[in-house]
Amino acid sequence: MKLAARVTQVTPSMTLAIDTKAKAMKREGIDVISFSVGEPDFDTPAHIRAAAEAALEQGKTRYGAAAGEPRLREVIAQKLQRDNQLCYGAENILVTNGGKHSLFNLMLALIEPGDEVIIPAPYWVSYPEMVKLAGGTPVIVSTTLENGYKITPDQLRQAVTPRTKLFVFNSPSNPTGMVYTPDEVRAIADVVVEQDLLVVSDEIYEKLLYDGAEHLSIGAVSPEAFERTIVSSGFAKTYAMTGWRVGFLAGPLPLIKATITIQGHSTSNVCTFAQYGAIAAYEAPQDCVQQMLDAFTERRQVILNSINAMPGLSCPKPDGAFYVFPNIGQLGISSLEFCDKLLDDYQVAAVPGIAFGADDCIRLSYATDVDSIRRGMDRLTTYVKSII
Ligand code: GLU
């Protein structure tokens, strides 16, 4: 069978592949400790589950509007106004099957052959692949540890060509956990406006901030930046709702209308009763978010202390999300080889940095309990010592 060229150009998602392998090993009874996929280990908070259960009981089990339940679109628009100073109405919101799907819809609506999309590296694994699936060309701009893995305004300016269509901005970052300060966001927004770019701001980790880090949405910098911004986000990471598949895209009306058409011919609406859980997530008090953040804060310290005590590994302190991105460059081994052996011989799952465009690093998600982190770090230490 001859598959379409668009499929043969993309590589499978390594985050999902490793998670699948780790879960299969666990099913076989192997004591795997997983730092692979970015998935909170908490259950979805009870009030969110209850809202979805009530929706099921109330017969919210039928097709809904492809764009999303009207109430959820309203609630998302209100949240973006309240928390992010982004002036969207409900009509500017598309409810999607998770944050990933919102980005995919965007690429499909916006990108065509010949279009370039600027992506700072390290990047989340799916950005370049989505651009390719849409027929576009990812333009990868490597950032440095010295700059906190953040693209500088000059780097962005230099990457722009007449073919540039979109810039992908992600803060807090997956995989590095770095957060652009408000001043840095403003400086990047200036370039976006000066070069008349479109920017998609992936803000899915916006609530997971440490040590007083602040999140500023790039669209809130100025009316000119707002016009050029599209926001992608979702409920998975903040409310431990990974399996629910509810995310959203917010942006200018013509774009959102185009993505509604795409969704109308592809997935139709997001699971109706899941959307009622999402409404509750935004409408209820946010104590559950703070509780999970407190737990992540402790875990982050535990994992950082362990990694920084290991020979041959160095790790910057992340300000957000729930990932650490240690450098393994001194070990003289590729990230893929490192992670394969770590899983096969030490039963610890981590994602090779190559998946994120940084082969000298590995990504560890600390969205798991402290005991598992300690045990996993003991194994990692033994492994690293065996290499050095
Ligand atoms: N975004 C999460 C991660 O990076 C979930 C897996 C995925 O969609 O890539 O681990």
Automatic annotation (TrEMBL):
<keyword id="KW-0032">Aminotransferase</keyword>
<feature type="domain" description="Aminotransferase class I/classII large">
    <location>
        <begin position="31"/>
        <end position="380"/>
    </location>
</feature>
<dbReference type="InterPro" id="IPR015422">
    <property type="entry name" value="PyrdxlP-dep_Trfase_small"/>
</dbReference>
<dbReference type="Pfam" id="PF00155">
    <property type="entry name" value="Aminotran_1_2"/>
</dbReference>
<keyword id="KW-0808">Transferase</keyword>
<dbReference type="InterPro" id="IPR004838">
    <property type="entry name" value="NHTrfase_class1_PyrdxlP-BS"/>
</dbReference>
<dbReference type="InterPro" id="IPR050596">
    <property type="entry name" value="AspAT/PAT-like"/>
</dbReference>
<dbReference type="InterPro" id="IPR015421">
    <property type="entry name" value="PyrdxlP-dep_Trfase_major"/>
</dbReference>
<dbReference type="InterPro" id="IPR004839">
    <property type="entry name" value="Aminotransferase_I/II_large"/>
</dbReference>
<comment type="similarity">
    <text>Belongs to the class-I pyridoxal-phosphate-dependent aminotransferase family.</text>
</comment>
<protein>
    <recommendedName>
        <fullName>Aminotransferase</fullName>
        <ecNumber>2.6.1.-</ecNumber>
    </recommendedName>
</protein>
<dbReference type="GO" id="GO:0008483">
    <property type="term" value="F:transaminase activity"/>
</dbReference>
<dbReference type="GO" id="GO:0006520">
    <property type="term" value="P:amino acid metabolic process"/>
</dbReference>
<dbReference type="InterPro" id="IPR015424">
    <property type="entry name" value="PyrdxlP-dep_Trfase"/>
</dbReference>
<dbReference type="GO" id="GO:0030170">
    <property type="term" value="F:pyridoxal phosphate binding"/>
</dbReference>
<keyword id="KW-0663">Pyridoxal phosphate</keyword>
